[in-house]
TrEMBL record:
This is histidine kinase. PROSITE patterns: HIS_KIN (PS50109). CDD domains: HisKA (cd00082). Gene3D superfamilies: 1.10.287.130, Histidine kinase-like ATPase, C-terminal domain. The keyword NAD does not apply.
Amino acid sequence: MGLIRDLMIQVAIIILPLFLYEAIRLNRYQSMNQKPNRYFIVLLSTITLILSMTYPICVWETCNYDFHQISIISAFLYGGIVGIIPAIIAILYDGFLNGLSWLRVLEVTFISVIPFLLSKKWSTFSRHKKMVLSFMLASVYTLISLGFEIFGLLFGKGFTPMISYLYSEYIFASFIMIMTMTFQVYLTEYLYENAMLRTEMQKSEKLNIVSELAASVAHEVRNPLTVVRGFIQLLESTEDVKNKEYMRLVLAELDRAEQIISDYLNLARPQIDKKEHICLSAQLIEMTTLMSSFAAMRGVYLQVEIAENLYTIGDKTKLKQAIMNVVKNGIEAIQENKGYLKVTAWQKDESIVIRVKDSGVGMTKEQLARLGQPYYSLKEKGTGLGLMVTFSILQAHSGTLVYKSEIGQGTEAIITLPDAMQNIVHKE
């Protein structure tokens, strides 16, 4: 019974902090970056490591077996290089409990190497692959820990009776440790995917509400606006100079209302109307040429570096609108009529990457998290619909738009689109 109790304590120490992480961080995912907070994960790993080593598993009179390997492996896999923090703490805390041992240093070093190398590509693996890798790592490191304990016995240090490992209690405890590591990875990925799914559902619900509103109202509002604009233009040709100035203001506001209506209509039909091969290189050059006058008018230096032979498939008009929205927002973010905006495009693997970087005022993490939400805008007269339309258009083209920004450091928008030429080669 004592073994079962100790095993349950070890499993609870490893698993329960994940629900704490879910409650504190993942439920606030809409205000977070799209990557897990590695420092928070390392903090939890350090806490679980200390608790695991404080309350070890006891078999007979020996109490020197715990699940500290899980905390170190997880810290490296999800935290990268900062996983070295719990690794060092494991050595120091073991020295505090049992006296410093070079065998413990070697053990922790062996445990850390492979997870650190895997951490660079860990986020790109599927959940199934992560579970298989975690099972293999836990199995290998269980044998490594056993080997170090044998060395400890030979040198008269560490875990003593070696014969105890031959008993079923230690085999069972090791099996539970491997299963706990695998389940921890599964639970981490499950909670993280659930958090992302909740966020996407919230965005989808908001988009559906706006789309339904657009479909029912936009056409009805557009018709009277067109009539009013026609009569204003007619009156402008007959009125005196003073009234003509007012007429121009009225026409400008009517144009802005027309643009808002167009944005609503685009939200109502974000799908691609016409698919065709698009030479993005030529389209980007044409688009930047058109925007150069707008940039010059605001005192912004526009830099362009576009690779040749970039092709994708989609609606040429809508794709142009989406990219122009991103470029226009970047130019408008530069205040005091000075700064630069750089547009670069290149091919990366099977995708085309377009980067729009400006030297504007930048954004906070909270502002970045809310980009693309309806009616949220950083402009004084903005509605937030333009960027929302941009996200919808790019999503319809199987593309993505990611913003990176810091206050005072400018903003970087990264657009990725599928490469049509690569798709053709793969089909052949």
